[in-house]
């Protein structure tokens, strides 16, 4: 369950419901609200009785109109009376001739019906609001298992009219409340607080509770632990700790790192950073696509179009050119395809010449990728690949066969039934007709091998959403083989990035994107009047450009596609990575200019103005946001939290000057800005962004 950030508002009240208009009044005006015409009787009528009376009155009116039509046809000698009678809005409103309906008086006037309808709506609205509050309270009690963490204003709006016998403290987030399970509305009795020593044994409870709330709110900022602020929260005790294996990036070797691999790389890096910050032992794995028929093509193509000198000068670019050439030729030349099959067969049979060339391609590729990963501040603990699991894949096929799970399709391929009804309506192919294994077979072997080697508690795959069915089948087959730990494997899918190809439709390489981001930031900073002197402008521009790429990617749900937009991404005043970096650099500059003022001992009472309280309250949500991200593995929660923090800090910077204030006030305010800067930097690092100190 995703953790809510703060207590939500009660069900919003609807606009006042007006009664039905009188037929003789102006259609522009509504009837004035009057006391109930039913006196004491009305209060005893149930909703069902009122509704029954309205239905009876409606039937009576329908009957009256029907008889009126008959009476008009039979009594043409009295047109005036009939006209008056038929034109009246209610029985008894016509004058003149007598009517057979005169004696039958209606139960309610039209005005009374309007008031009844209004009361019905009001009762329904109150009932819905009560149900909403009850559900909300129950859900919050489930989420906040051992403590409460609501702002003072929110609690006062919700419980402000409660008697003094109960205290509602919104910021006691570090206190464990034993009786909370018995108090779904989060009431803390004075006796409980006093007996536990939280409040003094006597005195003004309202004042004591406010002082306690303020003290607890400021407590984290009086310690020298800014870098771990929010990471030791009681909230995280409910999370399962253990070993998390994250597989991400996973490009194909012998190919340049194209822009499409960016999402998998930065999303997986975020998940690994988040899990590690919350106390998990994280294994970062890059599972390279280093096996398959494409290497048969590349091996055959390199023998025909390759050049060792060009391979040394620009290895991945040359391999890419060779691969394009051999692919074009293979489309029309069966001899080329046969040469590719022959080379891959030699590779599978471990012939030295083929294996040596393959190893050269792999080493070159990993070296080039590591250089790009370093620019992105991404690292891996393990570089694995499909080639590591050739033999394991054959063992998986044998296990499936011995368990009776392997079937033969009409084409001769080996398949596993993945349908819910066991009718072969959905199958997973694990073996070709010629006996060779497939990508998913090697994935099965890899998963089993990882469990044996690393004994992970959870494994997370980060790939595009187009592979969702692949992972559904993977987990299904693992469970069929008796591996219950497959339930702790998860696929995190992401959408596509539109607008990153060239006008001719050619693929864009990631290094070109990184270079473009750096160059644009260099240009923007050179044009800015507020740019500070930097030790390494290019390095700063690169870090800021990468932060812009990451924030643009992380602002929305990961599974959604998004449009790549250079101009919007690099804006300094919008909700961008540039804005995060600018705010952090500004806070660092403020602290540098006031080095003699700082200190961890300060007077908390000097930070109780509204602007300070708003910033502090937002900072206290940091652990909630991390918890929420840990539940759905979505970075958008953290990104939006940090962007809002930057906006609040910008306002506080204007309204809470450090320079020119008294020593005590300046010290307290600088402590506030220092804490905000630390939280901002910590959150940015979890996202995979390297904060800059000058900009």
TrEMBL record:
CDD domains: akirin-2, ArgRS_core. GO terms for cellular component: mitochondrion. Keywords: Aminoacyl-tRNA synthetase, ATP-binding, Ligase, Nucleotide-binding, Protein biosynthesis. GO terms for biological process: arginyl-tRNA aminoacylation; mitochondrial translation. Residues 1-22 are annotated as: Disordered. It comes from the Eukaryota. Signal peptide: none annotated. It is an enzyme of class 6 (ligase). It catalyses: tRNA(Arg) + L-arginine + ATP = L-arginyl-tRNA(Arg) + AMP + diphosphate. GO terms for molecular function: arginine-tRNA ligase activity; ATP binding. Residues 580-695 form the DALR anticodon binding domain. Gene3D superfamilies: HUPs, Isoleucyl-tRNA Synthetase, Domain 1. Its EC number is 6.1.1.19. Catalyzes the attachment of arginine to tRNA(Arg) in a two-step reaction: arginine is first activated by ATP to form Arg-AMP and then transferred to the acceptor end of tRNA(Arg). This is Probable arginine--tRNA ligase, mitochondrial. It comes from Dissostichus eleginoides. The lineage of its organism: Eukaryota, Metazoa, Chordata, Craniata, Vertebrata.
